[in-house]
Design a protein that fits this description.
Blueprint (H helix, E strand, L loop, with lengths): L17 H4 L8 H8 L5 E7 L5 E7 L4 E7 L3 E12 L5 E2 L4 E4 L5 E16 L5 E3 L1
Length: 132
């Protein structure tokens, strides 16, 4: 017998605290989390946590929020729900409905557009972040 579907209800999920909800080896650098939470008000919900082999976060970031150069140890698919961003290193920009696949160990950073950005990050594993 197959497993039943896993349903995730947005309003029932809490905003994530990456310094306490992730294993120690997968936690982002503390200074990055504190900067994101601070005056810029960035926040994230970990939605899918390994069900079916998927991991999915939804992040919301304020206008002009800067994500510094970093890399992950897993491939990721980013899908923009609302807003926009401009990537470093000539990766281009993303608007509503756009997506990008970023391969593991690729350095990248971006700046959110004038309306901020709400986006999904989908991976096949819980990723570690390393700042450059």
């Amino acid at each position: 017998m197959s497993k039943p579907p896993s349903i995730f209800t947005w309003d029932a999920l809490d905003w994530d605290d990456p310094l306490s909800s992730l294993p120690a080896d997968k936690q982002p650098p503390k200074e990055l989390v504190e900067k994101a939470r601070g005056k810029k008000g960035a926040k994230r919900k970990r939605i899918v946590r390994g069900e079916g082999g998927f991991f999915m976060n939804r992040s919301m970031m304020a206008p002009g929020f800067r994500v510094p150069m970093h890399q992950h140890d897993h491939d990721e698919l980013i899908v923009v729900v609302s807003g926009s961003c401009e990537f470093d290193d000539d990766f281009g920009s993303l608007d509503v409905g756009d997506s990008i696949v970023i391969h593991a160990n690729t350095r990248y950073g971006f700046t959110c557009g004038p309306e901020g950005m709400d986006f999904l990050t989908i991976r096949m594993g819980e990723a570690k972040v390393t700042l450059d």
